[in-house]
Write a structure and sequence with these properties.
354 residues; alpha/beta; Glutaredoxin; three-stranded mixed β-sheet; 53% helix
């Protein structure tokens, strides 16, 4: 129903398209990688990362509502349940905790510190994600439902048939120096990211399977990071191209093209709840927003037929004419938002457009 394309400001077809195409696309086609001189590196990158699992590191804190929501509603049902064989999921239970006078103090109080430590010990004791991911999901799901931690953990151990041996390992870890070391390790992992706080208490890092520190890190680092540091771009031989890319795209607006259809609930949700309040209202001076009102329509016997009927075709056409007539996004973005917002709550087009 909805497709958003984010494209760096300059057109891809230019006198020097190698410097105007984002690094993330440098290996997207043989033609481009050959033209720009990194065909060999792209080939080595594709070879090195072929069939490698994606590493997902999730920085969490046990009583953080956003972390619980992400784990329970997104990560477990949508990622783990569908792609367990294609990902390595690592949890780092620490979050916005701080060390004060040698003692860890957690954002949501001492209980959170205890549960963070428990989850670190749990992960260390069972080790495989096939065991610890369902357990962390189960515990966080129960905590989210306001079930006390001791009852939540006992319930999850029963439900997932955690052996007594594993339970003893976890308890031993909790009361030993190992539990402290695991939290110190979690603190270091979190602190290494140089974030003063974890955005919305949750940060997810998606890294291609191979380690970035390797004999040939140029071929194991994703292209999107090739221009992320001067050291790396110089080491890998595309310092000049990265410099030209940064120069060409400096202070350029980001083009956002939204493919939509007027009566699509998903499109309305995105425009009304996400695009307008979060992107346009905050970053209007940094983006160019283009709407393309057509969506899943098809041409049948020379006539456009829309997914949600003839009315949608009429509104798609109306919105296309509106955009063409006012031309500037300062006019058409608020208008499209207003119309879609009203259509979403049941107004007809004539009243929405008034």
């Amino acid at each position: 129903m909805l497709l958003i394309l984010l494209i760096v400001g300059l057109p891809f077809i230019s006198a020097d398209r190698c410097s105007s195409v984002p690094p993330s696309l440098w290996c997207s086609s043989k033609e481009l990688s050959k033209e720009c001189g990194f065909e060999d590196l792209c080939d080595r990158y594709h070879t090195a990362t072929h069939n490698q699992r994606i590493n997902i590191t999730v920085l969490i804190e046990a009583l953080c509502p956003d972390c619980q929501r992400f784990i329970v509603d997104e990560l477990y049902p949508n990622v783990y349940k569908n792609f367990a064989g294609f990902v390595n999921i690592e949890f780092v239970p620490y979050g916005n905790a701080k060390v004060v006078n040698g003692t860890i103090q957690c954002q949501h109080g001492p209980e959170e510190c205890s549960i963070n430590r428990f989850e670190s010990c749990l992960i260390d004791s069972v080790q495989t994600q096939e065991q610890y991911v369902p357990l962390i999901y189960c515990i966080e799901n129960n905590l989210r439902s306001k079930i006390p931690f001791d009852k939540a953990s006992a319930k999850c151990f029963r439900t997932l048939s955690v052996s007594e041996d594993i339970q003893r390992l976890i308890q031993s870890c909790l009361v030993s120096r190992l539990g402290e070391r695991l939290q110190e390790k979690a603190a270091k992992q979190t602190g290494n990211l140089n974030y003063s706080s974890i955005a919305q208490m949750l940060l997810i890092l998606l890294l291609v399977g191979l380690s970035f520190v390797s004999a040939d890190r140029c071929s194991s680092v994703p292209p999107s990071l090739w221009c992320s540091s001067k050291e790396l771009s110089k080491e890998c031989g595309f310092e000049d191209l990265c410099n030209r890319y940064h120069t060409a795209t400096h202070n350029q607006r980001i083009n956002i093209t939204v493919l939509m259809e007027a009566l699509c609930p998903g499109c309305q949700h995105f425009i009304v709840d996400e695009l307008y309040p979060n992107i346009y209202k905050n970053f209007a001076g940094f983006v160019n927003i283009e709407f393309v009102p057509y969506g899943n329509a098809k041409i049948v016997n020379g006539t456009i037929q829309c997914q949600h009927g003839a009315e949608e075709c009429a509104i798609n056409r109306f919105e296309s004419c509106l955009i063409d007539s006012v031309q500037t996004q300062e006019q058409y973005v608020p208008l499209i938002y207003c119309i879609e917002s009203n259509l979403r709550v049941g107004f007809v087009l004539a009243k929405s457009a008034i």
